[in-house]
Records
---
Amino acid sequence: MKVKWKKLVTMSLMWLASEIVLNFSGLDNLADYGEFILSHHASTVINIAKIH
């Protein structure tokens, strides 16, 4: 497997920059909460499916 280092580094730096901006603006906590709600909902659906 050949890793495209330039693309990997670019995407990592973009992710890091967006995390810093969102963290300082307070929107990062809102995004984390949204991810928590969605993951909790998905796990509930999976558990219900296992029961039936």
---
Amino acid sequence: MRTRLTVLPFLCLFAAVAAAQDSSKLNEPPEGYVALFNGQDLAGWIGHSLDPKKLREMPPDERTGLLEKNWDEVEQHWSVENGELVNDGHGPYLTTAKDYGDFELLLEYKTVAKADSGIYLRGVPQVQIWDTTEAGGKKEMKADKGSGGLFNNQKTPNTPLVLADKPFGEWNTFRIRLVGDSVTVLFNDKLVVNEQPLENYWDRENQLYPVGPIQLQTHGGEIRFRNVFLKEIPRKPPEAGYLAEDGTPYGDEWKEASAADTNDLRNFDMHATFKLEGDLPAEALFRANGGEYGSALVLTVSPEHGILLSDRKQNDSDSETSKPYTIASTPLEASGFKKNESNHLYLRVEDDHIQAWLNATPVIDTLYAHGPESGAIDGSGAHDLKAYVRNLATDTREEMPAADEVGFEAIFNGQDLSGWTGDVTGYAAEPNVLKSKPGAGGNLFYESELTDFVFRFEFKLDEGGNNGVGLRAPLGRDAAYAGMESQILDNTSEQYATIQPYQAHGSIYGIVPAKRGYLAPVGHWNQQEIVLDGSHVKVTLNGKVIIDADLEEASKDGTPDHKEHPGLKNQAGHLGFLGHGHEIVFRNLRLKRLNAE
């Protein structure tokens, strides 16, 4: 069955934003966006072309000196003319002084022959801007394929889906969305990149930086920018950042803070529920060393001053006069703080990356390369405190290690629904991704029947999202019972707060419960593997085994949901997706048949 490639919903959303932008005055942002360029001067920008990690790691005085030197060059090569940001093709890259995590970026540019440029996302190259003509001289670099691609990618596609450039002298428009490491680009109203990971050019063995600046590249010829607008997309906590109904965390290795060894921690997760009395603040100290005036990083929740992350000591003074350095802050009104009520703080510290949520509202998301390497956790000022801590080892993070792909075949071609059957009208094939349509969905099955296999895939949940993976399922019947279903579910949604363990994400629905606490934040990509070999089933989510069970053993005394599951006896059947009206996005569907002759 073949269906037409569908991108209309995203394009309609872009058209609405574009219309709002067109109806505004020059450099005045649409609703929900902020202007990165004010149309008058270079306020809010700095200049540099380095790996942002190296810039962060510089001693403060050295960093300040470099940026001052770079600014002299910025003023030579960047200017503002008639509300347009103009570069002569030389000088440092113009860089936002502020770092950003997940966002949508709108901008317009026009350039001249033989110039090229690019947009760096979180300080990493890049959404490419080319001279696409033969005279531009870069056909060997695939410039003729068009602008908008992720040029520096090596493992995944780096050219745009279509050629969409306008002639020299005309304004081109970008809408760039970055969530996690996944980029979608609309260029002159055409989809040119769709949910494509951006590789970390500066450190290819590791993931994209979690936060970083927007940079406008300079490279060989004049380029002009205008209407540069950005909308931040708040990050939800990962599933590990929520508490169960009984107030305990999800996932393994958690200990009550009073019983945990917190004397020499570097990377960790922490939950704390607490109340504040009056206007007195509470502090959580971590990587603390040296007693009362020693070094420490401090997260302060203050009814008067908001949320502050600070470095208590950046010098060698052992006195009360040693002034803390503020790393990041959030106003109280934007923090989700509840006065005279119980509050829930979730803190995640991974190397230089520090994140905090207060009552599931993001309040801190920053990279900080200075301060102590490790140390104790301590606190003060909180009442009715209940805290849990875990050492954030590799196997507790939401990421899948690289795996051997020998023997796997792609079962979705990234273009249409060839090879699939069932409710094909409830799903849409877009470039590289498969979507269950909101309000529709239904059951979509891989046409070939399977017996034993390994299924690897990636998926992205919407808020409250619900779907499932049908296993050895017959066509035209209730797959969860006539076959089996491995649940796909946003466990963090309030509407699922009271579900049974055998209904949680990854569970073999009604039969085998799954461990919780390993879903990535809503809107971010998850990686999953399902192994079905005879009666043995194993489910791995983001690198963590959440089910490893024998189905016959699990059901020998009846199923936990007390319902009939005749599909447990199936020797073969179909693999598929079982939609429930939510937009769930899938990509990289790979299958390996086991025990095949």
---
Amino acid sequence: MGFPPKFIVAIIAIFWLCRIARCVPDTNVTTVLCNSGVYSQGDPFVTSLNYVVAELESVTQTYKNYEYYNISPYPNAFAYGHAACNLNITSSDCTTCLAAAKTAMFGTCQSRIGARAVLHDCNIRKTEVFHSSCMAHR
């Protein structure tokens, strides 16, 4: 009992497609929200914000469930942040998606103290206001 040639060709084609197919994150922007508070370039908040956002972008994919909450270590101007990725993407795709989310957030909400960018496969948020519910998820 043998397999029909068309069946064998179909199986080989499926395996070949699965081998070369590469999943990429969906970085289409769903929404970007900005608050009305602004900061200036000389504000110490900028240092805190840069620290938090850089960590969100580089560390989130290493955490369980691709979700990370962060607070800056600088007491003169705290910044808080949260980032998360869809569990169905790879860790490198999470990093790619968060980079796109960061670009969307800063591009739309220039110099805003609080902002959030939601993409199909990830989201990122920054603020100077502590949300106790954020830290409960740590």
